[in-house]
Model the fold of this input.
Amino acid sequence: MRAPSSDLPIEFSSVTVTAKAVTVLDRISLTITGGAPTVLIGPDGSGKTTFLRTAMGLLAPSEGSVRWGGRENVPPERRAFTFQRPVLLRRSAAGNVRYSLAAAGIARGDRSRRTTELFALVGLSGLEDRPARRLSGGEQQRLALARALARDPVLLFLDEPTASLDPAATKSIEDIVKAVAARGVKVVMSTHDLGQARRLAGDVVFLHQGRIVETGTAGEFFAAPRTAELKTFLNGGLLI
Done:
C-alpha cells in the first residue's frame, strides 16, 4: 500500500450540511493530517456519519468547502469507505474482492495475488470460496475492509466498524486498523466505544448537534476534557 499526500490534508472550512431544512453539520472547520487514526465520537445524531461522508466526497457541503491536498472537487480515487452494515455482492468472498480490484483498475493477472494478500491482511485466509453473505458479522466486516483496501487508498473512512460485534470480532477489526495505519494509510473512523477510541486514536474529535465541541490528541483529550459537554459524555451522562 502506498500513502502519497495527494489527498491530505483534508480541510473543512466553515462546512454546513443541511437535509430537509435540518442542519446536520454546523459550520465545521477542521484540518485532518496524516498519521495515527482520527477518531470521531459523540452521541447518536451528532453528525459523525455525515462528517465521514462529506470527508469522503459522497456529500457536498450546503455551505463552506472541503479541500483534499489543497484542491476542491477531487475524484475519490484514493479514498475508500466502509459502512456500518456492509453491503456484499451475491458471490464468494473472493469474488467480492476481485470485483473491487477490477473496479480499481488492477490488471487481471495481478488480481489473484492481490486477493491472497488482502485475505491474509484481514485474517480471512481459507474463506475465499465461502459465500460472502454466509460469513459471520465480524467476517463480513473484515471482508468489507478487504474490498476497501483493494483500492489501495490513501484515506480509509470507517463508520462504526465494530458496532454490534462481539469482543473477539472487535479485536480483529482493531488489529486490522492498526496494521493499515502502520502501513501509512490515514484512517478516519467513528465509534460509540470510548475504550476503542482510547486504544486506536492519535487524535479525537467530539461532535454534538453537528458542531465540533472539542478536539485534540488522544492523551490530552481524555486526560483533561475542557468542556462541560465532553466531561458529561465521558462520564456516561446524557447530552440533550
Q: What stands out?
A: Residues 167-182 form the longest helix (16 residues). The beta strands are 10-19, 22-32, 38-41, 63-68, 79-82, 155-159, 186-190, 203-208, 211-217. Helices lie at 48-56, 93-103, 108-121, 137-149, 167-182, 194-200, 218-223, 228-234. The two ends are 42 Å apart (CA to CA).
